[in-house]
Every structure is written in structure tokens, then in C-alpha cells.
Amino acid sequence: MGFPLNSRFREIELGRIKPLGWLRKQLELQMEGLTGHLDEIWPYVGPESAWLGGSGDDWERGPYYCDGLVSLAYLVNESWLIKKAEKWINSVLSSQTPEGSFGPRSNLDWWPRMVMLKALTSYHEATKDQRVMGFLRNYFKYQLVELPSRRLSDWAWARGFENLVSIFWFHERTKEPFLLDLAKLIISQSIDWSKLFENFPYKEPAEKYLPKEFMEKLKSYRGWPKIFEDPSKVGLTKEEVERFFFIYHTTHVVNVAMALKEPALRYQLEGDERYRRIALKALEEIMRHHGQPNGIFSGDEHLNGRRTTQGTELCAVVEFMFSMENLFKTFGEVIFADYLEKVAYNALPATIRPNFYAHQYDQQVNQVLCNIAQRNWYNNDEDSNIFGLEPNFGCCTANMHQGWPKFTRTLWMKDENDCFVTVAYAPCAMRYDFNAQERVEIVEETDYPFEDEVGFFVSSDRDICIMLRVPHRSKSVTVFVNGEEQEYRNQDFIVLNVPRGKNRLTVRFQFDVEIVSWSNHTVYLQRGPLVFSLPIEEEWRKIRGTEPFADYEVYPKSDWNYGLILSDDISVSRNSVPKDASPFYSNVVPVKLHVKGFKVPNWTTLDGSAADPPKVNQRDVKDSKIVGLELVPYGCTTLRITEFPFIKKDGGDGNV
């Protein structure tokens, strides 16, 4: 098997990395929850789905669900879940026409097929089912013939780069030249995101570029086709509507989260180093203008600035993770893996109900109430932050399932010299067969990110190379190789040559509690990849639906309006989580920060959300009792305060 187009690392195929420890439990909860049972309770992916040969939904929901389902099924290796995944795959494979097309004939949109292609490639990696290879070859040839006359449009135009993920996967295995012609054709028909990212124009919330008044008109006419048909209906020219159409897609939070990988795909095709710079700049600019403390940027449904009142869509969380995985694979830049860990260990678990029974559409970093109410969203509905089966819109119900499985399958990668690299740290076992006689197995034992130490048991039939990624937040790294200590500083990777046989490696990171300035008078606290929040006692109220997959509002039962007194005496405590529990959803919180705080009486709710944190000063402390506060990992919370007003212990007011 050849090495892919221009790319530093290569993924290890699905099934060779198995989750262990708390990560295994996380995937089991997903299996026992919505991923394992969604087809039984949600008609869009039930037996009537057009992707299964029925007369139901024929767009993206089936492919989204299948994309996560296939990876999960083969990671947990449960026969009943594999059977569910195979039902989808067999239906899709049997749907191919003599010309090469596939899927529902009632909807020929290119976009949902781009998603289903990813599910098919994952399935082939796990099973080596050769039907997939002939199927993909026929479809890609069909695309090459069909696209000149039936161009990408709408969502496919905005997300055409997703098609390249599967084209490059197939090229890696076949080296067929026509695939590169197809990739260039698709790029030519898609939004040039790299050009947009070179001079990112959206430095303010989307309303500045796409007025809410226009969005209301768009809703009233049920989407773009009617407006394109007659722009005068909304008092605009054809050119103005086309401009708004471009802005709509390029500020859409899920499109942006997906598109962050576009420079990497262009780099794989062209090998131009400027795409590395563009990818880094894109991430920096988006986070500067729309970033949130949990590692993701706002989008409810479009980019909406850095205010704590804004939300972020769950689809954007899982697509951002997939983009970071692709960016790290292509460029090998540690920052992409740092963001991957931060979002996986904070934003992802926090927006999904314990036991994987429900999810939010939008999450907030300062989230003090989850109920049906009008909030300061850009254009999401009133139920967007409740926990339920299908709040606001069903895309996240279908798409949420890829987050943990794809994270798990990319914990390790390798380079062209078979040097194995750690992408993110979590308990797992990786087995790789060099040939029939030589194999390596690396068992990774850790409670990271809740602890700072990772152990590796390496068993190999040959000498191997291991590259340990060094998180940028670690001040130094100590490595023990069979008990022998070595210390490293200021390195992105530690390269270890490990002899054949059995070896024990231990990696110990040095993470300090960091006080991160977020505005001129607010901060949040982070240690390693974990962001810490003040948990708010919760009252869950069922509002509709059938248990266990019902809809809930969540109300606060404790005070939340606290500011922090910043000092050097922030302490850390740890607790052991039961083996049969997820650390994110356990009654025992695995790690806490102990800080001092004070009530801020004038900090109240506004339009259903915690108002923006006010600026405080020493007088506010004199009028309020100083109390001890326990902050817990963001991912362990439902209701929380993450971004705080503050003063300094030495008497300074709220400016860092």
C-alpha cells in the first residue's frame, strides 16, 4: 500500500486501535444510547429511510448516522451493532446503477453521497470487503463524466472538499490517475476556502454581513430556491442574492468547521507549503474573532462572536474534530492535536446527556439554564439548548455519532517510515502487522486527561520508532524507558527508538493551572487540555417524549454568579472514578481546582442566558463574603460558569 499524496502521517485502519479503560466505557454508553437505538425511535434513520430502500428521508441524515455507526460498531466489536451497520452498507452497495450512481433516486444531490463515501471507506478498512473497491471506482468514474454537466451546487458547492477525503483514500490504495483529475474538477466547482482564509473577512458576528431581516425572509420563502427564482420578492437584485448566498455558506458554523481541513486537502493535491500557513492562520483568525473557552467557536447557526451568551452547534463540534484530525495528519502541527484534545475533552461530552440519551443543538460556556426560550441566537430556534432527541433541527441527531469513534480511531498514526505517532492521549491498544511474521502491539494505559501520566507497554517483533507528541501546554516532559529517566523541553515530538521485544515506556507531563485572559475583564482556567467550570446544581424536568430518549429542560438549583479572586494558591485534588463509569458522567468528579471567589450581585440572567460577565473591582469583594469554590472539568458539567469576572489577590482589579 502506497503512502498518500503530500501528507506527513497516515491513518491506521479502523479496527487496529481499540479503546480501553474510560474510553471504552464512553463508547459503550454511546452504543447503549442513541447510536445503538436511533433507528428504532427516529423515523429519519428507521426502516423507511430512502437509503434503506424506503420512501422516507433521502438526504443527509442517513449518511450522517451511518458514518458514525460503522466506526463505532467495529471499534466496540459487538455483533448486534455490526449487524445494524451492515444493513446500511449492504443497502447502499446494492443501490449502484450501471452508470455508477448510488443512493436514493428521489434525490440526486451530490452532498449526502460525500458523507456516505466516508462510511463505505471505514467499512472496507474494518472488513476488507472488496465490493467497496469496485463500487468506489465506478462511482468516481461516474462523477468524472457527470460533473461537467451537473455541477456541484448549494451544500455540495460549499463542502466539495469532503468528497476529496474519500477520493484520496481510494487513490492511496489504487494510484489510479483519473482520481486526481476528479479531485481537481471537484475543487474547481467548490468554494475556494483557502482563498477566503488568507484574508478572513468575518471579524464580527454574522448579522453584520447577513442581516437577520434577510434571514427571516429566507425562512418565510422556505429556502434559497424561491428567492433565486425571484429576488424581487425580498427587494434585492440577483447579484445581491448571490452575495448573500455566499456569505450564508461561508459564515455557517458547520461549513466553517468542515472547511478548516480544506487547505490540507489542497496541500495533499498540490504540495504547496502556503496551505500550511493558510490552515494555521484560519484557525487563529476564527478563534480570535469567534472563539470560545471550550476550544470551539460560536455558531448559532452562523458565526456569532465571542460573547458568552452565544452558542455552538454540536455538528460543528464533531466536524471541527474531524478537521483537526485531518490537519494533523497532513501537516503534523502539534497545535491541531492540541485543539482536537481540547474539544474532545470539553465541548463534546458537555453537550450530550449522560448515558448518551439526549443532546443539545447549541451549548454555551456560561450555561445557567436550558429551557425553551428566546435567546440571543443568530437564527436558531427557542429549543436549541434543551437536551433532547431532536432540538431545533435533526442534523445533530444524525451527525453527533462520529465524534468519539473517529477520535478513537485516530489516536495513533504513522509516517512513511513506519514510525508510530501519538495524536491524542487516551487509554487504547494499537496492533499493527508489518507482515505475516512481524507485529507490534502498544497498550496505552492512562486516565489522561484527568491525570498527567501515560504508560505504554510495547511488544514488537522488530525494532520500532515511536514519536510522542508533546502538548504545547506541557512545560516539560519526563520519559522513562524501561525505568531509565530522560527529560525533554521545548520539543513538539519526542522520538524514541524502541528495540524488539517487550518494553515499558512512561510519559509524565508537567501541566500548570493557567489563568487565560479572554476579554479585558474576564478569565477562564485551564490545566492541560481540560477547561474548568463552576458546576451549578441541576434540576432536570421532562417536557416531552418517551424515556429514556425524552426531551428535558434543566434549571439551576444553586447560585452561579461568582467572580474569582486570582492568586498563586490554586490547588488541585483528584478522585478515583469507578471502573464502570465514564469520568465525564460519574458522580465522582476525577479532578477539581480549588479557588477563592465572591458573589457578584449585579450579574443576573438576560434573555434566558447569563448576561455578559460584568467588570468588578475591590469594592465588590468588600461588600461580599469570600468563599471557597470548586471548579470541575467543563465536560463534567451541564449547567456551569466557565468565563468569570475577576480581581487579583494583590488588590488589582479585573484586568490581566
Describe this structure in words.
- By secondary structure, the chain is of the alpha+beta class.
- It folds into four domains: 1-190, no CATH class; 191-352, no CATH class; 434-511, Immunoglobulin-like, CATH 2.60.40; 513-648, no CATH class.
- 36% of the residues lie in helices and 22% in strands.
- The protein contains 21 helices and 27 strands.
- Strand 16 and strand 17 (530-535) form a beta hairpin.
- Helix 8 (161-174) runs antiparallel to helix 9 and helix 15 packs antiparallel against helix 16 (274-290).
- The relative contact order is 0.11.
- The model has no long low-confidence stretch (mean pLDDT 96).
Into how many domains do the coordinates divide? 4
Q: What kind of sheet is the major sheet?
A: 7 strands, antiparallel
The first-to-last residue Cα distance is: 53 Å
Mean pLDDT: 96
Considering DSSP H and I runs of 4 or more, what fraction of the residues is helical?
25-40%
What is the tally of beta strands? 27
Which structural class fits the helix and strand makeup? alpha+beta
- The largest sheet has its strands arranged as 2-7-8-9-14-11-12
Number of helices: 21
Strand content: 15-25%
The outline comes out as globular
What is the alpha-carbon Rg in Å? 25 Å
Low-confidence stretches: none
